[in-house]
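Q: A reviewer asked whether we had any structural model of the full assembly, not just the individual parts. We don't, so I'm hoping you can provide one. Inputs are below.
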Amino acid sequence: MRATTIHAPRDIRLSEVATPTITAPTDAVVKVTAGCICGSDLWPYRGENDVEAGATIGHECVGVVEEVGSEVRSFRPGDFVIVPFCHCDNTCEHCRAGVQSACRQQGFTASGQAEYALVTQADGSMVKTDGMPDASLVPSLLALSDVMATGWHAAVAAGVREGGTAVVVGDGAVGLCGVLAASQLGAERVIAMSRHEPRQEIARRFGATDVVAARGEEGEAAVAELTGGVGADAVLECVGTDGAMRTAFAVARPGSTVGFVGVPHGVELPLRRMFGKNIGLAGGMAPVRRYLPDLLERVVSGAIDPGLVFDLTLPLDDVAEGYRAMDERRAIKVLLEP
Amino acid sequence: MRATTIHAPRDIRLSEVATPTITAPTDAVVKVTAGCICGSDLWPYRGENDVEAGATIGHECVGVVEEVGSEVRSFRPGDFVIVPFCHCDNTCEHCRAGVQSACRQQGFTASGQAEYALVTQADGSMVKTDGMPDASLVPSLLALSDVMATGWHAAVAAGVREGGTAVVVGDGAVGLCGVLAASQLGAERVIAMSRHEPRQEIARRFGATDVVAARGEEGEAAVAELTGGVGADAVLECVGTDGAMRTAFAVARPGSTVGFVGVPHGVELPLRRMFGKNIGLAGGMAPVRRYLPDLLERVVSGAIDPGLVFDLTLPLDDVAEGYRAMDERRAIKVLLEP
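A: Here is a predicted structure for the entire assembly that you could use as a starting point for your response.
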């Protein structure tokens, strides 16, 4: 099959690789109808994570079940499914505690930017739609495989509550989905920190009541002013860099929680402030499966349209251009059609 | 008055200093009937915090109100009061959110190991007993000024819940109070990590169901075994060192929270594990005033007796010996009688 592979920093290729096959009775193979590029794919692309030369890359996709293992009960060929980036049996003690991303039988989608993807623990991991979805819904369904669930997790981890004020640090696809999540979860005021006009516009469509374009101390001062000097009731850190984390803690009010979902890179936590002001940190790799049924319902009912984060659609053949566009911030998020 | 002063690492003296006086209308002066030495006093004692030569030291005490400022409404001379180590107006937005330790008018007890202590924001900070307490209750009341409330905060921050498993890292007075708190908050299993037999005994009296004497990886393995390989539902980190924090995160189950109350010294958080396993960090400087009314009731009713952590009582004159005894771990916590 054709699949995206990475060979070195900035060396993305569409290659011919072996099509995944069922090896465990709990596996499924999904024919990808839409995949996409994640902000976290840019870490290896930029050489900030190790690269295994020739490895497939891409962990987000939706598609149609092609084949299932002998123990898969809930899916059959032809089902349209959302594939969470992390797979889980949804029955172990960690799954039952709502941390499906730490499942005892954890797996990951390894070829989301390809023609086919293998899903381990298919019954526990995937969620199917009621029949084939309208093409217009596909971007929003695709967003559920990672970014929307991840933004939602940031909001839940940060303890967003009805009537409160939430600040979202980061205007990538996850940050924008975090704005949408905070708004859906009832925050009265959602402050998006974003410098980029097209992203600010999506943030507003997703429910941001205020946008702070300034960064660093200036941005922190702007949030302080917007919150009457008190700070935010909940802060969503959706980047993973040290600067973003510092801003998150700087704008969080005493006693609040920073919900973090950006894979941390070079982060040094401000422990003194955390201790002195009782500001907690919660979150991590999103347990996508936990949120999927609820999020699917919200997409199908039209309550949310996270697919708006896709501002560039390319044929899979042009995946390398997709990476360039995201790296240069010409695109927020790229949808790939195999 | 006679007050404990610190002049350099390991140089503790009883000195003659000016008796505190009312300078703000919200102040009160308390005649100390019992003070004590805190584990955190050992940081400057051991030279791990800066020392301001000649400064008074000691932030925990109970006593009798000597004098109040013109705006103090809730107290009058003769009242027996518990003095939280951190003072607050108990009305600002941070206090109302339950973070009295981050009060806009924050203050600290500066001469708890002395004859008199000044309390700023007296109305907001102090809690009085119903008449003069029996002498037998004084150690437990004194524990409420810091360690018991701090242990309680660790348990609350860690999210201890009825029926769950809690691990307490640290067998100092705060750790032992954390055991008591976890037990009171309904944890079915409370695992105390302690190597020292006299402390293990108090831990058991405070409700520990299991004691793990091993430390480091061996101790972590022992907790893993006790929790069926799952990890603890809540972990109380009551030390503040890097080793204690690592152990806390190692024994915490995915999705749980480490409640931390030990002033962090040289701590590097295991961010990769926190992210991958969704283990949060919450807590910080305890909002003593928030818990005081409840804790006072528990002490008076006999439900808790945190005063058991005091295993050495000395006249204030012997305060230097008290520091030595705690530094050498000959005493868990020293009560000082002026």
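A: Points you may want to mention in the reply: The two ends of chain B are 10 Å apart (CA to CA). Chain B has two domains: 2-146+287-337, 148-283.
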